[in-house]
Structure formats: structure tokens, C-alpha cells
Specification:
Order of helices and strands: HEHHHHHHE
Strand order of the largest sheet: 1-2
Largest sheet: 2 strands, antiparallel
Radius of gyration: 13 Å
Helix content: 40-55%
Number of helices: 7
């Protein structure tokens, strides 16, 4: 039997794990200006594209499939990691209530620009 540790898409779990490790090392979210999350090319379609939709998800369900937002939720969340409260429709619709910081959207835009310029491995910031 396998248990899913986080209430978000399984392709986002490695990013969530990495963010939780950074948080455990006392990384202050205020010190973060951008994040680059490397993923396999087939995964990009699920958690990174289209970039605008992943940076500003239309609903909590969409946020659970967003690489940028799941990593941000893990960095900013409480308790043991991410929870259902991190992926509510209210948080996705209302920027004031959103748990995701401004760098979530800004880093997605810069990652998309980098990906279009260079043939390097794709990334989801």
C-alpha cells in the first residue's frame, strides 16, 4: 500500500520535499527572490504549463497542480508540510488571501523566458 503524503499532484511532491528541507534549515521565505524547480520534460505539461495559469491558478484544484504554488505553500506553510488549506478556491481567487508570495508569479515568468532562450533542460520556477 502507498500513501500520498501531500494533497497535491504527485509530480509536485519532489519540489514540496525540497522546499520542506530548505524550511527545516531555517530558510526565511522573505529571503527568497526566485525559485527554479527542475523537472523532466513530460512533467512540464502537468505542473508548469501554461506558465500564466500555473503562476495564478484559477482554483484550489488548479493550485494543487502548480509547481510554483505547491513549492511556495511548502515554504510558507505550517505544521508538517502542505495541507488542504493551502489549496482552497478562496486563496486562489483572492491575492490578499493567497498563501503564495509575489515571487511565485515573477519566477514563473522568468523561467518561461529562460526556457524560450536556451535549449537547456526545462525548469519550472
Amino acid at each position: 500500500m502507498v500513501f500520498k503524503p501531500y494533497p497535491c499532484n504527485h509530480f509536485t511532491h519532489a519540489g514540496v520535499d525540497a522546499a520542506l528541507r530548505l524550511r527545516a534549515q531555517w530558510l526565511a521565505p522573505a529571503d527568497v527572490t526566485a525559485i527554479e524547480l527542475g523537472v523532466a520534460k513530460p512533467v512540464l505539461r502537468m505542473i508548469a504549463e501554461p506558465p500564466e495559469a500555473k503562476a495564478r491558478p484559477a482554483s484550489g484544484y488548479h493550485a494543487a497542480f502548480s509547481g510554483p504554488c505547491t513549492v511556495a505553500a511548502a515554504l510558507l506553510g505550517g505544521g508538517l508540510g502542505v495541507s488542504h488549506e493551502d489549496f482552497t478556491d478562496a486563496a486562489a481567487r483572492d491575492p490578499a488571501a493567497s498563501p503564495w508570495p509575489p515571487w511565485c508569479a515573477a519566477s514563473r515568468t522568468s523561467a518561461a523566458a529562460r526556457r524560450s532562450r536556451a535549449p537547456s533542460p526545462p525548469s519550472c520556477a
